[in-house]
Structures are given as structure tokens and as C-alpha cells.
Design a protein that fits this description.
This protein has two domains: about 10-255, inorganic pyrophosphatase (n-terminal core) (Alpha-Beta Complex); about 260-405, Diaminopimelate Epimerase, Chain A, domain 1 (Roll). It contains 13 helices and twelve strands. Strands 3-2-1-4-5-6 form a six-stranded parallel sheet. It is an alpha/beta fold. It is globular and about 60 Å long. Helix 4 links the parallel strand 2 (about 95-100) and strand 3 (about 120). The protein has helices at about 15-20, 45-60, 75-90, 105-115, 150-155, 185-200, 205-225, 230-240, 245-255, 260-270, 295-300, 340-350, 380-405; strands at about 65, 95-100, 120, 135-140, 160-165, 175-180, 275, 280-290, 310-320, 325-335, 360, 365-370. The protein binds manganese (II) ion.
């Protein structure tokens, strides 16, 4: 059974929506008077909490696979951990699985320092993975469009049980429980609301709870540009997490340094960038698969330049072991009227299956375009260079169509 929320209103302009949503989207405070069982005067969030509770009860003692994006970020990792702990209360064993790689230095530090229980399934072994022990699939901080695992989950007929995300709607998805709230800045905020509502009482004597709260704080901060983009809900969630998190541990995670290769990619993005109409666009050429997270970091950097409101950085990510090539790109903007989701969908359109090549959330977006027939290793340097030039030009052309106001596809001013 599907209990899809009505999200049609959320596709309207986010400013309008924030205003109209504000009075209803109260965060639950710990109020002893509050009774989840009573049907009267329940807030939208209390309704969601009750529905999630019912879903977990219905699936008690099952085994679930939590699929997070191929390149997990702190918001996805921490939300998945919080869900795993909540699900354990219902005797649900949930495995956090990703099929790509954790490459951002802060994310590596986060997983190592907190012991965050995420497992990597290598792509070349995916075909041999037996998914039959899983009864359900959970998507957090995602709608299934950014993981190579999803086709396998579908092939194995594993139903989606829970989907919780704050990205704009990426297409039709059916699940027992769906909580899509693009007006919330981080999925970690949503999971924290569930914790606060009592689905799992965190306890400072429990090291796992302290570490998970720290991870959630990091996830929430990293999706809100260190709380600068945070809204009331995010601040309230962060405020609740301060009761449990370990500031020294968070500091240790944030102290991790950029690798030399990330610095090199940032350098290339600076050198290659073209600036037009306050957009900064940079192709960085070929990158190793494990350096993929250098792209968003380069975009973060380029958008800090004077008179730049939006940066797009892209490159061809090459995995030598598996001979996979993808054009991967990141968008960062501080222009309030630019919707990253709309921008990316407009720029690159859809694949033959009707899926978009990317999407976005507030102030950020990303895309992945398969290199396809042109993919694969080639020894000839001039061929490799030519291939990059073709993709570079094609992507620039598609982006400039939107950047250049003469084409009036999107009015950015
Ligand atoms: Mn997120």
C-alpha cells in the first residue's frame, strides 16, 4: 500500500512555499501532554511520526537494506545510521549499503571516528550479491536515482518500505511510508525530528547514541552550509542534538585536511573556469573514481569568487578497475532565485528511460551522465584529449544556453 504524501504544493516556488508551510511545520517538543494515539489536533509531523511508527510495527523483525547514494555524504550517512538505530527498536535489522566510494576526506573521517556502520559493496561483485534475505528497501536522503544498487533491488523484487528525503521530487516512487520535504534543509533534520518525537530516546550514557548524534549534527551542518542556510526546523533539530553530541568528536571530523589530489582538482577548476553572467563554469578533465568528491569541493571554492553567484564544476570520472566512465558535475549557488534542481533538469534533460541526469536541493545540485559508447580506456593521448574536449564543449554548450539570457530559457535575473 502506498501512502504517498501530496507534494504537489511543494513543487511551487520555494519562497512562497516556505511562508505557507511555516505555521504548520511545528517541530515536536517534548511535551508530556502530547499523545500520539489521539487523533485530535495532531500536527503534520506528528502524523508522519505515527505513520512511520505503524510502518515499522508492520515490518517488525524483518531485514532491510538501506541504500544510500554511491558517494555518500554526511547527511545520508548520519540519517541512515539514525534510521538503523530506530529500526532496531522494532527488531528490524537494517544494513547501510553503498555501491560507490566514500571519498571526501571529512566523510572518511566521520565514518572512521564514529564507527558509522556503513558497508561498501563493490560494483564488480554486485551481480553475485544475494539480496533475497532482505524484505524491504529503505531510501534516505535519496529517491533511488543516485545508486547503482537500485536496479538490483528492483530486479530482486524488494519493495521500498521507507523513503525519507529533502531533495526535490525526482519522479514517481511507491513505498509504505514516504516523507519528502524539500523545504527542509537536511534529511538529518527530519530524522532528528523523529528521534525527538520519541521513536528512539537518545541517552548520553550510550556511546552509539552520542556518536550518531554527532554524525547527525555534522550531516545537518554540512547540508546547511554550517547552519547559515538553516531554517527554524534545522535549528530546532540542531538544538536538540546539542544535548547528546560530542563537540570534540565533531571538531576532529572537521579538522581533516584536503588531500593533494583534491587541491590539484581545485587548481584545475580555477585555471579552466570561464565566467559569464556571474556564473563560473569549469571542466576539470579526467579524475580518478576515488577523487570524485573533489568536484563539489571545487564548486564550493569557485562560488566564493567576487561577483560569482553560481559555480558548476564537472569532469570525467574514470574507474580503471571497472572501466566505468561518467561525467560528474556539481552546482553550487548563492542566488536565491536560482533553483538548482530546475536548472540541472533544464540543462541536461532526460535519458532514454525518462530519468533526469541529475537534480538538486536548496543551493546545490549535481549530475551524472554516462559516457556510454565512448567510455573506456584508450592509450592514445590525442584520443583521450579529443574525447574530453567533446564532452567539455557539449556540457558548456548546454549550460551556456541557460546562463546566457539571450536564449531566455531561464531568467536568472
Ligand atoms: Mn541531504
Amino acid at each position: 500500500m502506498s501512502s504517498k504524501l501530496d507534494n504537489s504544493a511543494e513543487q511551487e516556488s520555494s519562497n512562497k512555499q516556505l511562508k505557507s508551510d511555516r505555521p504548520n511545520s511545528k517541530v515536536i517538543t517534548e511535551n508530556p501532554q502530547r499523545d500520539l494515539k489521539s487523533n485530535t489536533n495532531r500536527s503534520p509531523i506528528e502524523n508522519l511520526v505515527q505513520k512511520l511508527q505503524q510502518t515499522l510495527e508492520k515490518h517488525a523483525s524483518e531485514r532491510q537494506i538501506i541504500v544510500i547514494q554511491d558517494f555518500p555524504d554526511p547527511d545520508a550517512l548520519s540519517s541512515a545510521w539514525a534510521y538503523k538505530l530506530i529500526a532496531a527498536e522494532y527488531n528490524i535489522e537494517a544494513d547501510i549499503i553503498y555501491a560507490g566510494i566514500i571519498s571526501h576526506q571529512e566523510n572518511i573521517a566521520l565514518v572512521r571516528l564514529t564507527g558509522l556502520p556503513a558497508k561498501r559493496w563493490e560494483i564488480q561483485n554486485l551481480k553475485n550479491k544475494d539480496l533475497s534475505s532482505y524484505h524491504g528497501c529503505v531510501l534516505l536522503d535519496s529517491q533511488g536515482t543516485n545508486s547503482q544498487l537500485i536496479p538490483l533491488v528492483k530486479e530482486a523484487n524488494i519493495p521500498f518500505v521507507v523513503v525519507i528525503d529533502h531533495h526535490s521530487i525526482q519522479g514517481d516512487i511507491q513505498a509504505d511510508f514516504i516523507d519528502l520535504r524539500p523545504q527542509i534543509r537536511a534529511t538529518a533534520t527530519i530524522l532528528t525530528q523523529y528521534l525527538q518525537a520519541g521513536l528512539l530516546k537518545f541517552n548520553t550514557n550510550n556511546q552509539q547514541h552520542v556518536k550518531c548524534a554527532t554524525a547527525l549534527m555534522h550531516g545537518l551542518r554540512s547540508d546547511t552550509n554550517q547552519l547559515m542556510l538553516a531554517q527554524e526546523e534545522d535549528f530546532l533539530a540542531a538544538s536538540y542534538l546539542t544535548r547528546f553530541y560530542d563537540p570534540q568528536l565533531l571538531n576532529a571530523v572537521l579538522q581533516s585536511n584536503r588531500s593533494r589530489r583534491v587541491m590539484d582538482v581545485i587548481e584545475r577548476s580555477l585555471k579552466n573556469r570561464i565566467v559569464q553572467n556571474n556564473f563560473s563554469l569549469a571542466g576539470v578533465g579526467y579524475l580518478r573514481y576515488e577523487d570524485r568528491d573533489a568536484i563539489p569541493q571545487a564548486a564550493d571554492f569557485l562560488v566564493t569568487e567576487e561577483n560569482i553567484h553560481t559555480a558548476v564544476v564537472y569532469g570525467i570520472v574514470h574507474d580503471e578497475d571497472q572501466d566505468i566512465e561518467l561525467v560528474i558535475g556539481s552546482l553550487r549557488t548563492n542566488k536565491l532565485t536560482l533553483d538548482p534542481d530546475e536548472f540541472i533538469k533544464q540543462a541536461f534533460g532526460q535519458n532514454p528511460q525518462g530519468g533526469f541526469f541529475g537534480g538538486g536541493r536548496y543551493m546545490a545540485g549535481g549530475f551524472e551522465i554516462p559516457v556510454g559508447f565512448l567510455g573506456g580506456f584508450n592509450e592514445k593521448a590525442d584520443y583521450v584529449k579529443l574525447k574530453w574536449e567533446v564532452f567539455d564543449r557539449q556540457i558548456k554548450q548546454k549550460l551556456l544556453r541557460l546562463v546566457n539570457p539571450d536564449d531566455s530559457v531561464i531568467h536568472t535575473d
